[in-house]
Design goal:
It catalyses: XMP + L-glutamine + ATP + H2O = GMP + L-glutamate + AMP + diphosphate + 2 H(+). The chain has helices at about 5-20, 30-45, 65-75, 85-90, 95-115, 130-135, 145-150, 175-185, 190, 210-230, 285-295, and strands at about 25-30, 50-55, 80, 120-125, 165, 240-255, 255-270, 275-280, 300-305. The relative contact order is 0.12. It is of the alpha/beta class and about 325 residues long. Strands 3-2-1-4-5 form a five-stranded parallel beta sheet, with helices on both faces. It binds xanthosine-5'-monophosphate.
Length: about 325
């Protein structure tokens, strides 16, 4: 019978055996898989695990600082790299969803490669790949490994991709990863986090990206997500987020006519993201959230709720 405790014990032994005194580099994303992989490896090889957490400037509000602190609190040997400016620069003026993804993937690889080069004599690249990633090979949806794979044919391989690869979660399903994480003592809140796309808010800002649009969407998203938590709805939703639409609409504020941005809120139920249904959130919650957003976020005067299922709509709008 499979148990998380036995898995941890066995895997830690195997990793010790396999990795010996070698150095390993791993990219942390703030998500469940890379975190569990890191904690497992940390248990096996400690400071020989070099974690890199890149801020692409497209994360949720305060996410980089908060999660980095959490990682440090877990005793991980982690370096936070704030490359926001580099990502924003690469995205400037770009509106095409796939080109935005490509630009983000390219910059991520550059930044990660630079960091890997700073680790003297690193031998291994660790990844939080799980079984569904393996069977899908390159999933349509992406994820860090897919981002990397889609760049195989662009010029030569970056050096870090020539490292030997270690993937301790490769045989596990998501729920097993969560159970392993719990048995490793990882915070339940971290393990229960909604999925978040690698390109982050870039694919929730329709059209081109600017620092100001990122700031607006971060504020909106934080109000929505914190509200879901306060109303005890967060764990009933598989994934939620806000989209900043490339549309201005007319509103009134006092005696003034406004002409400002519209945001769409999306919350879905799903098991694997392949199909999804919109969640029937309470009207009172939607009402309060909409008021909060419009009152507190400058530049937004309209909020709509997305009631489309996947298929045919996707979860993300880009
Ligand atoms: P869609 O929008 O295709 O999303 O219904 C399905 C799931 O995949 C996530 N997603 C991505 N994740 N890179 C990622 O790492 C991407 O480019 C990407 N696009 C979509 C999305 O958040 C949802 O969980």
């Amino acid at each position: 019978d499979w148990t998380p405790n036995a898995f941890v014990e066995e895997t830690v032994d195997e990793l010790k055996e396999k990795l010996g005194n070698d150095k390993v580099v791993l990219g942390l994303s703030g998500g469940v898989d890379s975190t569990v992989a890191a904690v497992l490896l940390n248990k096996a090889i400690g400071k020989n695990l070099y974690c890199v957490f890149v801020n692409n400037g497209l994360l949720r509000k305060n996410e980089f600082e908060n999660v980095l602190q959490q990682y440090e609190g877990m005793g991980l040997n982690v370096k936070g790299v704030d490359a926001s400016a580099r990502f924003l620069e690469a995205l400037a003026g770009e509106s095409d969803p796939e080109k935005k993804r490509k630009a983000i993937g390219r910059v991520f690889i550059e930044v990660f490669d630079d960091e890997a080069h700073l680790i003297e004599d690193v031998k291994w690249l660790a990844q939080g790949t799980i079984y569904p990633d393996v069977i899908e090979s390159v999933s349509a949806t992406g994820g860090p490994s897919a981002t990397i794979k889609s760049h195989h044919n662009v010029g030569g391989l970056p050096d870090f991709m020539k490292l030997k690869v270690v993937e301790p979660l490769k045989a596990l399903f998501k729920d097993e990863v969560r159970r392993v994480g719990a048995s490793l003592g990882i915070d339940a809140e971290l393990l229960g986090r909604h999925p978040f796309p690698g390109p982050g808010l870039a694919i929730r800002i329709l059209g081109d990206i600017t620092a100001e649009k990122v700031r607006i969407l971060q504020e909106v998203d934080a109000i929505f997500i914190n509200g879901l938590k306060e109303w005890d709805l967060y764990d009933k939703v598989w994934q939620a987020g806000a989209m900043l639409l490339p549309v201005n609409s007319v509103g009134v504020m006092g005696d003034e006519r406004t002409y400002e941005k519209c945001v769409a809120l999306r919350a879905v139920e799903s098991t694997d993201g392949m199909t999804a249904d919109w969640v029937n959130l309470p009207y009172e919650f939607l009402q309060k959230t909409s008021n909060d957003i419009i009152n507190k976020v400058k530049g937004v005067n309209r909020v709509v709720y997305d009631i489309s299922s996947k298929p045919p709509a996707t979860i993300e709008w880009e």
